[in-house]
Design a protein that fits this description.
The protein is an alpha/beta fold and 444 residues long. It folds into 4 domains: 101 residues; 42 residues, no CATH class; 138 residues, 3-Layer(aba) Sandwich (Rossmann fold); 119 residues, Rossmann fold. Helices cover 49% and strands 7% of the residues.
Length: 444
């Protein structure tokens, strides 16, 4: 038996409809099997808080082994997982096709699915997962919503903490009064002289770019038009990542089937599909095919989808980008988000920004500690800042004029980490995503 495998990691379909998937005894047996292997390896000790919690739990037990750990004490380990996939993709030597068959993130997902089936998703968390409903409502009263969610609001944030479980100091995304779909009819002029002219793509807006930061989608569309790419903007619904984090796999399966069915018409017309946020790209490319593996539309969508930074660097590599990029003053620190890394596509955010001439690019490839909705919760916020402290230190040391991440939520979390170190972020530009900076470099 070899210790590890040099072969590419393989993921198996998630058997979430099998009764054994949420059976308490079967789940406990699998948790113990995988936890015991992790205990003997410990290569993941510095990735997130799940592994230190697990190892401390075992080390402090009567025997120092898993056999004297009560299964009831596993919950903090499960709760600390952010489903970032970094243990599976970058650290674990025992993932499939190795015979040990470890998939720690999907095991944590299974445990959450079992808990959700047994006790339901807590009220506050369930409300936060309704991203489309929340976005639609907040966009109509964006000024009020942004006032209420602003850090330092001593009237509303303590109430949000008590009712929804959102930490009063966690930075929350702002809402726009005009969504990306509202802007969709205003298509930019296509540059027919660009080397990539003839490409066609639909931008899957994602709930974040549609409701919270429309500049990501507008910048992407202008860049693609500058490079000759005809685009349309679509947003059938959220990809379901917030619900996946809570173990509501059935809801994700429904979203996958419906969205893939609607996007298949665009694929049949020769359009590429571009996701504007890496968590959503990961869902469309990899998670949906594992949740509904027999759906042909989901398979087609998986093969047709690219992350926005991946798509632009593909143009640069194959046709070449249109002229007109100018240097950015102050330099750039770019954080490579975990869900971008989990797509196994390389550092596309950094690769794209290096196309900008005479601009210093500082790259950070480590977990920010945010973990989507996980990092804003009362019980997780301080832990998230601790996990992300090395990233904040690197970003503070670089002192760049621009700090961006492929995950906009991670970017704001990093800025909070810098401020926790006693450093100012006032000079940092407002851009969250690398594509916003490329648009600036084009002057568009």
């Amino acid at each position: 038996m070899s210790e590890g495998s040099l072969e590419a990691p393989e993921r198996h379909p998630i058997p979430w409809q099998d009764p054994a998937f949420t059976d308490a005894d079967a789940l406990d047996a699998e948790l113990r099997r995988q936890f015991d292997i992790c205990h003997g390896c410990r290569r993941c000790f510095n990735l997130c808080d799940s592994f230190p919690r697990l190892f401390d739990l075992i080390d402090e037990s009567e025997s120092g082994e898993l056999d004297t750990v009560d299964s009831a004490d596993f919950k903090p380990v499960i709760d600390a997982c952010t489903l970032c996939d970094m243990c599976f993709m970058t650290k674990c030597p025992y993932v499939p096709p190795h015979e040990f068959n470890l998939d720690f993130p999907h095991l944590m997902l299974r445990a959450r699915a079992a808990e959700a089936k047994k006790t339901g998703v807590p009220f506050g968390v369930k409300q936060l997962t309704q991203t489309d409903r929340n976005g639609r409502l907040a966009s109509h009263v964006s000024g009020l919503a942004n006032w209420a969610s602003k850090c330092g609001n001593h009237v509303t944030r303590p109430v949000m903490e008590g009712v929804l479980g959102v930490h009063r100091d966690a930075a929350l995304p702002k809402f726009q009064s005009k969504t990306l779909m509202d802007h969709a009819s205003q298509a930019p002029e296509i540059n027919a002289d660009a080397p990539a002219h003839g490409r066609k793509a639909v931008l899957y807006a994602t709930c974040f770019a549609n409701f919270n930061n429309t500049d990501i989608g507008l910048a992407a569309r202008r860049i693609l038009a500058k490079n000759g790419v005809e685009t349309e903007v679509v947003y059938p619904r959220c990809c379901g990542m917030p619900k996946l984090e809570q173990g509501d796999i059935a809801a994700v399966a429904d979203a996958a089937r419906q969205t893939a069915g609607e996007l298949k018409a665009w694929i049949d017309k020769g359009y590429d599909v571009i996701a504007l946020v890496p968590s959503c790209a990961l869902m469309l490319k990899f998670e949906w095919p594992l949740i509904v593996p027999d759906d042909d539309n989901v398979k087609a969508l998986s093969g047709a989808t690219s992350d926005i930074t991946e798509y632009i660097t593909d143009i640069a590599k194959n046709e070449g980008l249109a002229d007109g990029l100018r240097p950015l003053e102050g330099g750039v620190t770019v954080h490579i988000a975990c869900h971008a890394r989990a797509q196994n596509m390389g550092q596309k955010g950094a690769e794209m920004l290096r196309l900008i001439p005479d601009t210093e690019i500082n790259v950070i490839e480590r977990c920010s500690g945010h973990g989507g909705s996980w990092g804003i919760m009362k019980e997780n916020f301080e832990v998230g800042l601790k996990v992300g402290k090395p990233v904040a230190r690197q970003a503070a040391k670089a002192a760049s004029g621009h700090v961006v991440s492929e995950c906009p939520l991670a970017r704001d979390h990093i800025l909070q980490g810098i401020e926790k170190l006693g450093e100012s972020t006032e000079a940092v530009s407002a851009a969250q995503h690398p594509v916003e900076l490329l648009a600036r470099a084009y002057g568009i």
